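User: Please fill in residues for this 128-position structure.
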């Protein structure tokens, strides 16, 4: 169940470990370029960035007006706590470029999770 705010936006996000695919990509910042792997995950209602990776990128973060609660697939609240900030990253994919929000949290072994917003905006072809 998702609680709706009066402005129509949700304060609850989900990270579910089903329907996922790893995607290698190149991450480029002002200072360096490196190979990374993103988890493409249709069960995630937002895009996520591991907060430890964010710290190493030296990019700006933005505070949320309200905390986001993250739930696991079993409906329990994620043990990493509520999300209070995000950053903006430019995504270049198949000739299209968009600036997208990435919510900052601890993701365990994953560094990047590309969720529903990425899938909706880029509509990538994937052979599941």
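Assistant: Residues filled in for all 128 positions:
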């Amino acid at each position: 169940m998702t609680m709706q705010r009066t402005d129509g936006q949700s304060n609850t996000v989900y990270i579910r470990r089903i329907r996922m695919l790893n995607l290698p990509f190149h991450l480029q910042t002002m200072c360096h370029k490196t190979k990374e792997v993103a988890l493409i995950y249709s069960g995630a209602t937002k895009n996520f960035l591991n907060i430890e990776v964010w710290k190493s990128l030296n990019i700006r973060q933005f505070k949320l007006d309200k905390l986001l609660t993250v739930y696991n697939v079993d409906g329990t609240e994620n043990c990493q706590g509520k999300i209070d900030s995000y950053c903006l990253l430019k995504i270049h994919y198949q000739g299209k470029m968009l600036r997208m929000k990435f919510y900052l949290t601890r993701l365990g072994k994953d560094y990047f999770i590309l969720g529903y917003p990425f899938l909706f905006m880029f509509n990538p072809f994937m052979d599941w």
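For context: The longest helix spans residues 51-57.
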